[in-house]
Write a structure and sequence with these properties.
227 residues; 40% helix; elongated; 6-stranded mixed beta sheet; 6 strands; alpha/beta; 9 helices; Lysozyme-like; single chain
Length: 227
């Protein structure tokens, strides 16, 4: 799914420009904004306005039923967790807000958010246990829609896990430029990941490894010819 970048301008009070530790966590929020038209684009406009600057509030992504809008670079701190300037939630987690606008499809928005979370977990090599509620950091009833629905949080995590199963390796996101090729060589048994389950796509091959891959490819071609 396409992610639209609409960053808060650098230098604004709600974009501190501090380096995010890790990131080590992904924090899920609900917008608590039930106004008609309160979609991801509307929240992007809000974050660039005076009220958000005055309240010192910011987060990394807003997700609705049609798109994902990114407001901050992944390695910058956002003020979303409510645990203070030096709190773990603010300083080491990516904040994601899911829209509640009545003219949107909430189920689809949650599905898009689950896809985004899985993509981020893959990108940063994080475990599912690193996906947490805003409630963890500040005690706030957030994400309120997921918390209010019976098994809502568990269902959301299950959707994230389902998306994770569709990924090739935890460190190869779906939008990686070589994702299709990596998927092919894995499925055909030409290359595999390391013992920790990761592929390390930017790591160079040794001559011995290259020879092994070429031998597997030769065997693969022979098999195709014989078939």
């Amino acid at each position: 799914m396409k992610i639209v970048e609409d960053f808060i301008p650098a230098g604004r009070s709600n974009r501190p420009g501090l380096k995010l530790f890790g990131p080590e966590w992904i924090t899920i929020h609900d917008t608590a904004n039930t106004g008609t038209g309160a979609d991801a684009a509307a929240h992007a406009r809000y974050l660039k306005g005076d009220d958000a600057a005055k309240k010192l509030v910011s987060w990394h992504f807003t997700v609705d039923d049609r798109q994902i809008v990114q407001h901050l670079p992944l390695y910058e701190v956002g003020w979303h967790a409510g645990d203070g300037v030096n709190g773990t939630g603010n300083r080491s987690s990516i904040g994601i807000e899911i829209c509640e606008n009545p003219d949107g499809n909430r189920e689809k928005a949650e599905g898009n958010a689950a896809w985004l979370v899985a993509d981020l977990l893959s990108k940063f090599g994080l475990a599912l246990e690193r996906v947490v509620q805003h409630n963890k950091w500040s005690g706030k009833n957030c994400p309120r829609v997921l918390r209010a629905r019976p098994n809502g949080w568990q269902q959301f995590l299950a959707a994230v896990e389902s998306n994770l199963k569709d990924t090739i390796f935890p460190d190869v996101p779906a939008d990686h430029w070589a994702a299709e090729g990596i998927k092919f060589v894995k499925e055909q048994g030409l290359m595999s990941g390391k013992s920790d389950g990761k592929f390390y796509p930017d790591e160079a091959l040794t001559r011995a490894q290259a020879a092994s891959v070429l031998k597997r490819f030769y065997d693969f071609l022979l098999k195709k010819t014989d078939g």
